[in-house]
Amino acid sequence: MKRLKVLSILLTGFISVNTLKAQEVLTLKQVIQYALDNKKEAQTAKLDLENSEYKISEVRAGALPQVTGTGSLTFNPMLQKVAIPGELFGEPGKTVMAAFGQKWQSQANLSVTQQLFNQSVFTGLKAARTTREFYQINSQLTEEQLIEKVANAYYEVFQTQLQLQTIQNNLDNTTKTQKVIKGLLDAGLSKKIDYDRVTVAINNLESQKQQVINAWELQKNALKFAIGMDIKKDIQLPKETFETNSGLVLADNDVDSRTEIKVLNKQNELLELNKKATIAELYPKLSFTGNLGYLGMGNAFPIFNKSEGVNWSGFSGLGLNLSVPIFRGGETKAKVSQADIELRKLKVEIEDTKLALSLANENAKAQIRNSLLTVNSNRENVNLAKEVMENTQNNFKNGLATLTELLDSENAFADAESNLNISLLNYKVAEIQLIKSAGNLKSLVK
């Protein structure tokens, strides 16, 4: 029995440990890495990159020899007859009906085609390699966009977590006040209305706390979806506060080095190659062909038949095929003009994107500066509000402050902490944008 009790205790402890492990505490780095490994966007970008290798192989196949094997077997139950003048057979004035061909005919053939000069194929090979580079850069851009989205979602959860802690601190302070008033009420030194007012304040804080908890749970679910995690899995964020970095470099970023511009530039290369491929349709095409075959005919089934009624003969041929476009009704010219329009449209998009990236960089720098000032101001305000609250609590205990003044000081302290949390979130969002403008979002994973 003792052994069973010990085993039961150990099993219970084991289950408790596993339950604790199931609730993961995730840092920003871990959350981002999880998203890069599991989120659909990242996985799709990797598959597109892998698929680009197959596209290169597909285009490369056009420049390699094309070998084709064919075979046929024909049975002619009724041979067609042809009218032949009888003079050929020594019967003048008569027509002889003669059947041509054999009842059975079998053929096996092997043909080879090799492009010797085809500008479209050569241009396609260059385009395929550029496509691979495009998907490589696009995969990097997808990762950066995912990192930005996940980081913002993470900090929103963190900000709500801090807000929840602020409400809990205010609730603890008000509960302490309630206990003090309860003692005074029991001693006949306070009024019941004061106790009821504090009770109402506590109930309101409890309701507010529950609302924030609900919002917190929804934000955690949104974060789990953003990183591709099972919604039912419980996660927690580490118990730490936001930190500001006054040493951030607020330099102008080089927009040409941004991944967004690299993707567009690579897309421009693809459009240039598409234009060249269209022009290549006007070039002559030269290819080599060769075939080798074997033909069997007879009145008996020819395959696997070595009887005298089946005759076999081989055949082969080598040749060059030259195709020279002469007149296409202006089709190629129209396609080239369309390709030019696409290039000009992309050029406009590149310039507009550069302008947008520069604007985002300036806005991020301005937001960082303003957020730092606001954060520092709110921190001072929190310290001041805390000092006022503590002094008011002491004055209330000594009968030098009213209950209204005490509740107001506690609410002011909670508001100051809430304002600080909001300003810290704004700072972190601006910090992400500044890191993004410098092209260093990957540093959040390192």
UniProtKB/TrEMBL annotation:
Keywords: Cell outer membrane, Coiled coil, Membrane, Signal, Transmembrane, Transmembrane beta strand, Transport
Keyword Transmembrane on entry: yes
Entry coiled-coil feature ranges: 336-363
Signal peptide from the UniProt entry: 1-22
InterPro entries assigned to the protein according to its UniProt record, in alphabetical order: OMP_efflux, TolC-like
Superkingdom of origin: Bacteria
Compartment(s) where it occurs, according to its Swiss-Prot or TrEMBL record: Cell outer membrane
Gene3D superfamilies reported for this sequence: Outer membrane efflux proteins (OEP)
Stored PANTHER family: OUTER MEMBRANE PROTEIN TOLC
Family to which the UniProt record says this protein belongs: Belongs to the outer membrane factor (OMF) (TC 1.B.17) family.
Protein name: TolC family protein
